[in-house]
Design a protein that fits this description.
The structure holds two protein chains of two kinds. Chain A is α/β, with parallel strands linked by helices. Chain A has seven helices and ten strands. A six-stranded mixed sheet of chain A has the order 6-7-8-3-9-10, sandwiched between helices. In chain A, helix 3 packs parallel to helix 5, helix 4 packs across helix 5 and helix 5 runs parallel beside helix 6. The longest helix of chain A has 16 residues. Chain A is globular. Helix content of chain B is about 55%, strand content about 15%. In chain B, strand 6 and strand 7 form a beta hairpin. Chain B contains 13 helices and ten strands. Chain B is elongated and about 105 Å long. A six-stranded mixed beta barrel of chain B has the order 2-3-8-5-7-6, surrounded by four helices. The chains are: A alpha/beta, B alpha+beta. At the A-B interface, helix 2 and helix 3 of A face helix 1, helix 10, helix 11 and helix 13 of B. The structure holds adenosine-5'-diphosphate and magnesium ion. Magnesium ion binds next to helix 1 of chain A. The site of magnesium ion has 2 residues of chain A, from helix 1.
């Protein structure tokens, strides 16, 4: 499903070069729940942005679902983000002026998919247990509820891959647990999930844990999956 | 993304910043209403001038003396020559030599001071012959015009325009009353009906007409028996150029001039006057439009400015939209529709305001000609305002569309 070969990412800000990733090779098969851990600044977000086609690697090869990503145009990348990938960010990233259901609908609008758009958005909201908040603006929802709206938006186009960058980073433990259970259920439905976190108990939900340090993979382990969180 | 979706987004975006959107719209509103109003005033002036000229009669030719023959002598001003005579008038009116001419009348005059009991009025005096009403398109409201006998006898009779009647007699019947024209007693025998086209440069209702012989004898003392102008009535508007040729030939023969370039007279048709007048008013309209157009451009720059601010403010939103699959063209369209909607709505409101002002302003400022707003100009104004939104929105929208998703998402 996801294959990275010798991926490097160098940020250039003026004269200064920051090497965020150096020689990352990683294969993520379909249906896996993988956690990427590491200290702050180790390159986790950079890696997720590359996997999510939000950015292009400086060197190396990235094949997603058979597509060589480095060869794709901007519009093709937009299409991949729209159809194959769902994002959940630490800071929710909902559009503040749009209601919950309108936020969830948005990927369908860009997919040009007008078939029962509203119904599908409502169904996605229902699956995260927020149907009764459909008309609320993000500012009228709690952090946990906003993140659930974001999860609903991520899965409304029925993507094969869900990328979550510290999705519980801003949440209390109760909301965190809700979100993690949602992700676990989605994985059990067969979706590939890439979760970034620096919290061990959150990573406990994943079948596999990859640790990064200074832009390189320092460990890659399988583990038994937790069902509850201990905090 | 569909246009409809884009419109919904645009309205949403504009509503979220009502004050800013309204102020930006105001710039376009003022520009468009100024264009509508000022071009309307220009057109109105042109229509008023044309009506006034046409009310003189479209089959009218005017013959002026000119100084072309004063070769080597003193340069005289236009119309100051004394080369036209009453015999010229009679020759022109001869159907044998000039078949396209119905008749011709002389004219001599100037300003005159009129008095009746204790009322005073300064008006325009015309000395002429009995055919004046037909040639110059005047109707009589009451009384009658003088006849050829009055001209031969130099009778002291006068026919006055309605403006003169109102100002001297203030409601009383002027017929049969004796007024003083430049201290000479004349009896009023007729009053003209209003010509209607009042206002503008010279009021055709403010005149006093007497037999040309009486004018020479009693009113234009010392200036000889000059004919200042000859008005020639052609058989129809189409016949004016044929009549022009005939009159030219008759006068050249009578004045013994073989080279037409040395003619001591000049013939002006109403068409010539009309043409030069509409050229002048056309330039006026263009200038007014250009001035108003500048304010439209300023409004457009306002839109560009606000759209740049909007794009910067919504950088993160753009990043989110791109992350969930918006293509460049989706973002481009969103911001273009927003700026075009802003300017289009401003333009539509501007048209309404322009119409309103065009109604109200001539009532408040009576010197203004009634603005004439043509339907194409309204559509043009609306099209231009939408076009301004497109033009000035293109740069900000393109900037938004080209944002890289990852950088837009990181923007705080
Ligand atoms: N857009 C950027 N420009 C310059 N440097 C960046 C940029 N994004 C990340 N970096 C740098 O790359 C390194 C890895 O960052 P990041 O992937 O965000 O780490 P993490 O998510 O693990 O905290 C850090 O040193 C960070 O400063
Ligand atoms: Mg990070």
């Amino acid at each position: 499903m996801i294959t990275l070969e010798g991926i490097a990412k160098v940020y250039r800000t003026g004269e200064v070069e920051v090497v965020a990733l150096r020689g990352i090779s990683l294969h993520i098969p379909e249906g896996e729940f993988i956690a990427i851990m590491g200290p702050s600044g180790s390159g986790k977000s950079t890696l997720m942005n590359l996997i999510g086609c939000l950015d292009q690697p400086s060197s190396g090869r990235y094949v997603l679902d058979g597509y060589d990503v480095s060869a794709l145009t901007d519009d093709q990348l937009a299409w991949i983000r729209n159809r194959k990938i769902g994002f959940v960010f630490q800071s929710y990233n909902l559009i503040p002026r749009a209601s919950a259901v309108h936020n969830v609908e948005m990927p369908l609008i860009y997919a040009g998919d007008n078939q029962q758009r509203r119904e599908r958005a409502m169904a996605a909201l229902e699956s995260v247990g927020l149907i009764q908040r459909a008309g609320h603006l993000p500012s009228e929802l709690s952090g946990g509820q906003q993140q659930r709206v974001a999860v609903a938006r991520a899965l409304v186009t029925d993507p094969a891959i869900l990328l979550a960058d510290e999705p519980t980073g801003n949440l209390d433990s109760e909301s965190s647990l809700e979100i993690m259970k949602l992700l676990r259920d989605l994985n059990q439905q067969g979706r590939t999930i890439v979760l970034i976190t620096h919290e061990t108990d959150i990573a406990g939900f994943a079948q596999r844990v990859v640790r990064l340090r200074d832009g390189v993979i320092v460990s890659d382990e399988r583990q038994s999956v937790a069902t509850e969180m201990v905090r | 993304m569909s246009i409809l979706e884009g419109l919904r987004l645009a309205v949403n975006g504009l509503l979220s910043n009502r004050l800013r959107s309204s102020l930006t719209m105001l710039g376009i509103l003022i520009g468009v209403s100024a264009v509508i109003l000022l071009v309307g005033v220009g057109n109105g002036a042109s229509v008023a001038v044309q009506q006034q000229i046409q009310s003189l009669g479209s089959n009218l030719l005017t013959v002026f003396p000119s100084n072309a023959r004063s070769a080597g002598g003193v340069q005289q001003g236009f119309g100051t020559g004394s080369t036209l005579t009453l015999d010229d008038v009679k020759a022109i009116a001869n159907r044998q030599t000039s078949p396209d001419v119905v008749t011709a009348i002389p004219s001599a005059g100037g300003r005159a001071q009129l008095t009746y009991s204790n009322q005073n009025w300064n008006s325009s005096l015309t000395g002429t012959t009995q055919d004046f009403p037909t040639v110059r398109n005047y109707q009589l409201a009451s009384g009658q015009f003088f006849n050829s006998g009055d001209v031969d006898a130099a009778s002291k009779v006068a026919v006055i325009g309605p403006t003169v009647a109102t100002n001297l007699f203030s409601g009383a019947d002027p017929i049969g009353q004796v007024i003083k024209i430049n201290r000479q007693s004349f009896r009023v025998i007729g009053v003209f009906a209003p010509k209607g086209s009042s206002g503008g440069f010279n009021n055709q209702d403010d005149i006093v007409v007497v037999p040309i012989t009486s004018a020479w004898n009693y009113l234009l003392g010392g200036r000889g028996r000059n004919v200042q102008q000859i008005y020639v009535e052609a058989t129809s508007a189409d016949a004016t150029s044929a009549a022009n040729t005939e009159v030219t030939q008759v006068l050249l023969d009578r004045h013994h001039i073989s080279d037409p370039t040395l003619a001591d007279f000049q013939i002006l048709s109403q068409q010539d006057v009309l043409n030069s007048a509409s050229q002048t008013t056309g330039v006026l309209t263009l200038m007014l439009g250009a001035i108003a157009g500048i304010s439209l451009i300023v409004g457009g720059i306002g839109i560009m400015n606000i759209m740049l601010v909007t794009v910067t403010e919504r950088t993160r939103e753009i990043g989110i939209r791109k992350a969930i699959g918006a293509r460049r063209q989706d973002i481009l369209l969103q911001f273009l529709i927003e700026s075009m909607f802003l300017s289009g709505l401003g333009g539509a409101l501007g048209i309404l305001v322009g119409f309103g002002l065009a109604r109200v302003l001539p009532v408040v400022v009576s010197a203004l000609p009634t603005p004439v707003i043509s339907t194409p100009s309204v559509f043009l104004a609306f099209g231009i305002s939408v076009g301004i939104g497109l033009f000035f929105g293109l740069y900000p929208a393109n900037r938004a569309a080209r944002l890289r998703p990852i950088e837009a998402l990181r923007y705080e």
